[in-house]
Amino acid sequence: MTHAIPVAVLGASGRMGSEAVRAIEAAEDLQLVAALGRADSLQDLVASGAQVVVDLTVPDSTEQNVAFAVEHGIHAVVGTTGWDAERLGRLGNLLDQHPGVGVLIAPNFALGSVLATAFAARAARYFESVELIELHHPDKVDAPSGTAERTAALIAEARRDAGVPASPDATRTARDGARGCDIDGVRVHSVRLRGLVAHQEVLFGGAGEQLTIRHDSFHRESFMPGVLLGVREVAGHPGLTVGLDGYLDLQA
Ligand SMILES: NC(=O)C1=CN([C@@H]2O[C@H](COP(=O)(O)OP(=O)(O)OC[C@H]3O[C@@H](n4cnc5c(N)ncnc54)[C@H](OP(=O)(O)O)[C@@H]3O)[C@@H](O)[C@H]2O)C=CC1
Ligand SMILES: O=C(O)C1=N[C@H](C(=O)O)C[C@H](O)C1
């Protein structure tokens, strides 16, 4: 049998990090070599001998964590939000200087969510109107969700490519926030509610019809197969990959 991949988790005591620690410990082909939090030094990553780090921390720290990993030749699987175009650009440049290293930035590790986003991008050109609602637990620190940012961007790109005009909207007066935020012309509404985990609806409207593409994560175990897939695959995908779909064959 081949050796187990040594893996470190950053943000190991958080909601996602603790779930990832359990999943990695239960996987025979992976070995958890470090479970680190805010108080630990990133040097512990190097000392642990990790080949792959899973970053499940906070938007404020993820960029420096991943840069450190790349500079030390450690592949990174990143679920943390906050990776806007500027940060991705800087990471791409850094990876150019470390050509053997792979980084996966996965806005959502749940297979159903990855599929829902792909379906939404596919449907985007066929409807006059589109809006998006994301719904999460109230302990989430960022809004809108990273998944919503990515879904909206892909929908906008598909509509632009197909020459679809902006969604109709006659609103002339509105309270702040009433129409959500605007991501590339797609309105995104964020709900924070105790009892929820992670949910998203993409609403498409055409004359006399509506298509809703909804995904629900009821438990964080839904993200674990994607985390494990990322850990197993990242070394084989040098450079930057955005979206778990980059490791899946969604055309099949
Ligand atoms: N891609 C996906 O499928 C998913 C992504 N997420 C994203 O993952 C991130 C984490 O979410 P969640 O687990 O709910 O958040 P939590 O707040 O529960 O966990 C974050 C953890 O990171 C730790 N942390 C903060 N700063 C650092 C640092 N500099 N170095 C190491 N650890 C640090 C925190 O420690 P302390 O408590 O000491 O502050 C905390 O334990 C979010 O961005 C979220 O949006 C969440 C679910 C799924
Ligand atoms: O904070 C969360 O919980 C989640 N964060 C990610 C996001 O912002 O999209 C993924 C999932 O929605 C859960």
The unique ligands bound to this protein are: NADPH dihydro-nicotinamide-adenine-dinucleotide phosphate, the ligand O=C(O)C1=N[C@H](C(=O)O)C[C@H](O)C1
CATH homologous superfamily classification of the largest domain: NAD(P)-binding Rossmann-like Domain
Please state the CA-atom Rg, rounded to the nearest Å: 19 Å
* Number of distinct helices: 7
Q: Can you put this structure into words, describing what you see?
A:
This protein is an alpha/beta fold. It has 2 domains: 5-105 and 220-247, NAD(P)-binding Rossmann-like Domain (Rossmann fold); 111-217, Dihydrodipicolinate Reductase, domain 2. It has 7 helices and 11 strands. It has a 6-stranded parallel beta sheet with strand order 2-1-3-4-5-11, sandwiched between helices. Strands 7-8-6-9-10 form a 5-stranded mixed beta sheet. Helix 3 (59-71) runs parallel beside helix 4 (85-96). The protein is elongated, with a radius of gyration of 19 Å. The relative contact order is 0.17. It binds NADPH dihydro-nicotinamide-adenine-dinucleotide phosphate (NDP) and the ligand O=C(O)C1=N[C@H](C(=O)O)C[C@H](O)C1.
